[in-house]
Specification:
- By secondary structure, the chain is an all-alpha fold.
- It is built from 9 helices and no strands.
- The longest helix has 27 residues.
- It starts with about 20 loop residues before the first helix and ends in a 6-residue tail after the last helix.
- Keywords: DNA-binding, Repressor, Transcription, Transcription regulation.
């Protein structure tokens, strides 16, 4: 005689409540707050007020302030890296690529639609020791830009545009340093575009002669 056995149904895990706000739009607004005040100075109240959400909603959607910041930086960096790749691809020579990069930075860093300067350069420069890992993440982002610049310069060397003994690493480091300095100048001068364009012009005079 067969004995019928019953298997108890496991309780189904309740699905999380759907977000009641536009996550992308909220992230964009948080990015602007971090951009204006910096990582540590941006308060939870300022963030939630700008995002139009409550603190529990912020934690539910993004985890915590640090994760929110890193996601905002990822959003910012992805856009910039895509734009940089397109700019380099369109430039006929390495010199043109770097010159266009500096000029576009002078314009972007002083654009009135957002805070002056670069989020990745300025948002985590004055953090306490407890936020060292956040600063390290920003260093990694800046190093990534320098790596892209170096790759474009190395292409110029292979194409014969630059002498074979050109130090691509040193040249990339120089122009990346100029870009970071331009970000600081943009903040200090309140977005003086003419000053940044003049810096870009002067920096290109250091381009090695063939």
């Amino acid at each position: 005689m067969e004995i019928e056995t019953k298997t108890e149904d496991k309780p189904r895990k309740k699905a999380g409540r759907p977000l009641s706000f536009d996550r992308d739009a909220a992230l964009e607004r948080a990015m602007l707050v971090f951009w204006r005040y910096g990582y540590e100075a941006a308060s939870l109240q300022e963030l939630t007020s700008a995002m139009g959400i409550t603190p529990p909603s912020l934690y539910a959607a993004f985890g915590d302030k640090e994760k929110l910041f890193l996601e905002a930086v990822e959003r910012y960096s992805s856009k910039n890296c895509d734009a940089l790749q397109c700019l380099f691809a369109a430039a006929p020579t390495a010199r043109d690529a770097i010159e266009r990069l500096l000029q576009s930075n002078a314009i972007e860093l002083t654009c009135p639609s957002h805070p002056p300067g670069c989020l990745v350069v300025t948002a985590a420069t004055n953090c306490s020791a407890s936020s060292a890992h956040v600063q390290s993440a920003m260093v990694e982002r800046r190093d990534n830009v320098e790596s892209m610049i170096r790759t474009r310069i190395e292409e110029g060397i292979r194409d014969g545009e630059l002498a074979r003994d050109t130090d691509a690493g040193a040249l990339a480091n120089f122009y990346n340093t100029v870009i970071q300095g331009m970000s600081t100048q943009a903040r200090d001068t309140g977005g003086n575009r003419d000053k940044l364009l003049a810096i870009a012009y002067t920096a290109m005079r250091a381009w090695p002669a063939r």
